[in-house]
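Lecture notes, part 5. Sequence design as translation. It can be helpful to think of inverse folding as translation between two languages: the language of shapes and the language of residues. The source text, in structure tokens, appears below.
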């Protein structure tokens, strides 16, 4: 088992009884805590029209987090590129990199990050997405290059800056693209586990070295809920279960506090569907987390694990990331 890095995915979760201002302050608090205990990066994900997630203006929020931290890398996990002009994203992230040199990541996805009606409001054309997304990535690379200085269209700021690109995915399509372009690859195992193993295999087998990367680099995103006891961790995880149950029911309200028994809320069919989607959720005390991390790494051999934590109580969410850090430290091969 090789060593691997550990990072944070934050969806800027909006909780019942809390304001969006509270959400952003909690995100900054988490970023500061993650930085202090040596997490590698802190990513925020673009979503729209969801009462439970406040990271719609992703680049603005990245700036807020980067400004309130000192060294941790901050970026998008990801920006849903077909929702935007490539030039605008180049300018936004060029601005961020100019403000916070050497700390900004640009993770890119092709999904809308929302429902179909909202996707239309964002101006997406589903008929051309599959050809538009790879073309936009090449546009971004051109805008960031020094060679683009003679072009009629330039990204100012952005041009000549070293802003690493990452391909995000939840299917094998993204694995082929990341391999072809020679870019690092992050898979959304926290909500789409079905094709993760196959996607990693495709990416490794077909990877072509590039200017950015000479060998494959794989990030797996998983859910994580850790606590002092296994019983507490499983109770805290009912917030995560309720969030996914609400998605199944198309009831995307703010995140709810934990409950004593999920069987009072979901049907057997709903339970099966939620647990299938949450296959890669690490729930338990430190010893259980250590074993689950070890088993996962022995199977997937990733370069980095990025953890998404749906925990209602902010301090317990911080504590969970602290327990994951301790579990990771115990596994590191000296």
């Amino acid at each position: 088992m090789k060593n691997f890095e550990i990072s944070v995915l934050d969806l800027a979760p909006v909780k019942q009884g809390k304001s969006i201002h509270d959400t952003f302050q909690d995100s900054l608090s988490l970023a500061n805590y993650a930085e202090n205990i040596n997490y590698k990066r802190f990513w925020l994900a673009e979503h729209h029209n969801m009462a439970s997630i406040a990271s719609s203006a992703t680049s603005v929020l990245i700036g807020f987090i980067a400004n309130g931290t000192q060294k941790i890398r901050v970026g998008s996990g990801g920006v849903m590129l077909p929702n935007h002009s490539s030039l605008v994203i180049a300018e936004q992230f060029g601005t961020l990199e100019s403000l916070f040199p050497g700390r900004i990541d640009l993770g890119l996805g092709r999904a809308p990050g929302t429902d179909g009606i909202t996707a239309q409001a964002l101006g997406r054309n589903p008929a051309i997405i599959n050809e538009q997304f790879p073309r936009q990535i090449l546009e971004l690379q051109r805008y960031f290059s020094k060679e683009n200085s003679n072009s009629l269209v330039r990204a100012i700021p952005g041009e000549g800056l070293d802003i690493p690109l990452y391909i995000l995915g939840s299917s094998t399509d993204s694995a082929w693209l990341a391999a072809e372009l020679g870019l690092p690859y992050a898979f959304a195992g926290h909500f789409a586990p079905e094709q993760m193993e196959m996607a990693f295999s495709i990416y490794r087998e077909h990877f072509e070295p590039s200017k950015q990367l000479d060998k494959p680099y794989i990030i797996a995103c998983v859910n994580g809920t850790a606590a002092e006891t296994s019983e507490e961790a499983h109770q805290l995880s009912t917030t995560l279960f309720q969030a996914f149950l609400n998605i199944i029911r198309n009831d995307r309200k703010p995140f709810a506090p934990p409950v004593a028994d999920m069987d009072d809320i979901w049907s057997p069919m709903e339970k099966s569907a939620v647990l299938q989607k949450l296959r890669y959720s690490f729930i338990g005390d430190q010893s259980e987390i250590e074993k689950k991390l070890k088993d996962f790494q022995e199977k997937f051999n990733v370069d980095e694990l990025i953890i998404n934590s749906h925990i209602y109580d902010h301090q317990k969410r911080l504590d969970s990331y602290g327990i994951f850090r301790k579990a990771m430290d115990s596994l590191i091969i000296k």
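The translated text above is only one of many valid answers, since several sequences can fold into similar shapes. The chain has twelve helices and nine strands.
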